[in-house]
Amino acid sequence: MSGYIAFLKKEFIEDTRNYRLLLMLGLYFIFGVMGPLSAKFMPELIKTFSPNMQIIIEEPSALESWTQFYKNVSSLGLSLTLIIFSNCLSNEYTKGTLTIMLTKGLSRPAVILSKFSSIAVIMTVSFWMCFGVTYGYTAYLWPSEELSHLLFAAFALWMSAMLYLCILMFGCVLFQQAFASILFLLVITLIFSLLGMTDLLSAYSPSFLSSKNIDLISGTVTISEFAIPITISLIMSGVLLFLSITVFNKKQL
Amino acid sequence: MDILKDSLPLFIPLIVVELGLAIIALIHVLKHPNYRFGNKIMWILIVLFIQIIGPIAYFVFGRGDEE
Question: Distance (Å, rounded) from C-alpha A149 to C-alpha A218?
Fold first, then answer.
């Protein structure tokens, strides 16, 4: 336990020095601000710069602002997050820094768990900050609009982000190179989205959590439909974390 | 265009954070002339002209080891 806490501290210091923390906070802050602003002003900009264009532009709404939030965070935000953290273990492999600490008595599960917790904490803080910023801007720009289930929809996306972090962790344990773990992640994501396309499994696939959020807010999907994907993601995250620990226990460094 | 001018303060946080990231990355590029690949001019251009993704790309892929 003390090894876990000590290594966790080391992880946070490393993430600060590596600029990872700064990048994550900056990235998610920008996404948080950009969603509402582009929803509000993009139609205006299009009108100003191409007045001849004949397209029907919908009146900006709070729903559009949240659509932007989910689009940005679930695609670009999540991919950049995973890229930022993709070398979390490969750096240690190449520099051989882990070997010293492991021979000094640090337990192997502690390494994986503290790596995962540090990433999860940074992700959680950045994500909810992004949510808060979008919430504030949306409430300011569209004060009269009330939307339901905002918090739960964001929770579903956060849950799927945690699942992807677990997959990344497992990928990092399996492969020495950061590039290979990203590739592994891509393959898994592809499988999820393929599962999401089939009618039979779409309601169970974890990709449901990151694609149906806006439908929940607009009311075409109910909260109860999220129960199964959330349970599946939770179980998968747990299993993946467990597998990462077991594989890492046997891994030669 | 008036609507944009009126709500300029709303954009200030966005601009501050984007510029902040770019400047922090720029200082790092100038102070640490060892890159995993590419050269100084390339990284300066990337960091300054590609919003958000430029600084991230530099810190994740371009940053060399500390001496």
Answer: 9
Q: Which residues in chain B are contacts of A41 at CB distance < 8 A?
A: 3-4, 7
Neighbours of A152 (CB within 10 A): 14
Phi, psi of B63 (to 5 degrees): -65, 125
Cβ–Cβ < 8 Å for B54, B47: yes
**CB-CB contact of A7 with A111 (8 Å):** yes
- What's the CA gap between A16 and A70, in Å, rounded? 27
Q: Give the count of Cβ contacts less than 8 A between chain A and B.
A: 53
Contact A157, A212 (CB under 8 A): no
* Amino acid, single-letter form, for residue A87: N
Place of tokens 């100038």: B30
Q: Are A214 and A208 in contact (CB under 8 A)?
A: no
Q: How far apart are CA A52 and CA B42, in angstroms?
A: 39
Q: Give the separation between CA A148 and CA A135, rounded to whole angstroms.
A: 12
Helices (H) and strands (E) in chain A, counts: 12, 0
pLDDT (tens digit, 9 = 90+) per residue, A73-82?
998 999 999 9
Cβ–Cβ under 8 Å, residues A195 and A207: yes
B55 in Cβ contact with A22 (< 8 Å): no
pLDDT, tens digit, 9 for 90 and up, residues A16-52: 988 999 999 999 999 999 999 988 888 877 777 777 7
Residues of B in contact with A45 (CB under 8 A): 4
CB A214 within 8 A of CB A66: yes
